[in-house]
Design goal:
single chain; alpha+beta; 2 domains; two-stranded antiparallel sheet
């Protein structure tokens, strides 16, 4: 279920429903152990996603954490995933550095927006307190997903090289493309959303030729349905849905211009 509070505040800034007191009780021990494993590292830790909005489902939801300057984030996430396999699908710790939030680039701007509006502070220094509310506009949408063309190039390479299992690649392709579609919806409709299902439905109304292929991506996004033979190749091809979304995103929102 999406964040029912996500949208635009009266002053035009992004509004979300993430709050510390919304974290379900059954996930509190996982968070406590994650904080304990920080030790005295000086790192920062946040929770985001469905756990932060109180919409996480036992066993089937991930616990999504974000760290800043944490050594061994992936290893800690792996340990917690094993320890709490009975409570969640996995514990994922995004590994970022303080410098990822500082530059005057689309990527860094998107990181600041995400930290300010989508992350709940758990431990360590909290640089989000110095950040203002950000406008719900094309710049924010570009910061989040203006790298879709770069992802498309990598996905095509992975598919051709056979370095990634098709179901796993399909999930990543679907989720990122639908998040970019949410950016299109946000800018086109003068709203703000990161809801993949809502984006799929609404952009299918705006551009009916993409309704069916977007619905196919939506069916892959949670991993419950995998592509039939040739479907992922077509989605990533020159005439595929991902290419079409990249082109529309470039026209309406804009792609990252900084060096790769």
């Amino acid at each position: 279920m999406g964040d029912l509070y996500e949208g635009v505040s009266p002053d035009g800034t992004i509004r979300t429903g993430v709050r510390r007191d919304l974290v379900p009780d059954m996930f509190e021990q996982i968070i406590a152990d994650a904080v304990r494993l920080l030790d005295d590292s000086g790192a920062s830790l946040y929770v985001y996603g469905s756990v932060a909005t109180g919409k996480a489902r036992p066993e089937s939801s991930d616990v999504d954490l974000l760290s800043i300057d944490l050594q061994g984030a992936a290893s800690i996430g792996g340990r917690l995933s094993v320890a709490y396999a009975d409570r969640c699908r996995g514990v994922e710790i995004a590994d970022t550095a303080a410098t990822d939030y500082e530059a005057d680039t689309d990527a860094a701007y998107g990181n600041r927006v995400f930290l300010r509006h989508y992350c709940v502070h758990l431990a360590g220094p909290d640089p989000s307190t110095a950040l203002p509310p950000f406008p719900a506009d094309a710049r924010a949408a570009r910061g989040f997903n203006g790298d879709l063309d770069r992802h498309l190039a990598r996905w095509r390479h992975e598919l051709t090289a056979g370095t990634t299992a098709t179901p796993e690649l399909a999930v990543r392709t679907a989720r990122k493309t639908l998040l970019a579609t949410a950016g299109l919806v946000s800018v086109h409709d003068h709203t703000w959303t990161t809801d993949r299902a809502r984006a799929c439905q609404r952009w299918g109304e705006i551009d009916p030729r993409l309704a069916v292929p977007l619905a196919l991506l939506q069916s892959w996004s949670d991993g419950k349905q995998t592509p039939a033979r040739g479907e992922l190749e077509r989605a990533l091809g020159p005439d595929g849905v991902v290419t079409a979304v990249v082109a529309r995103f470039a026209d309406i929102v804009g792609l990252w211009t900084e060096e790769r």
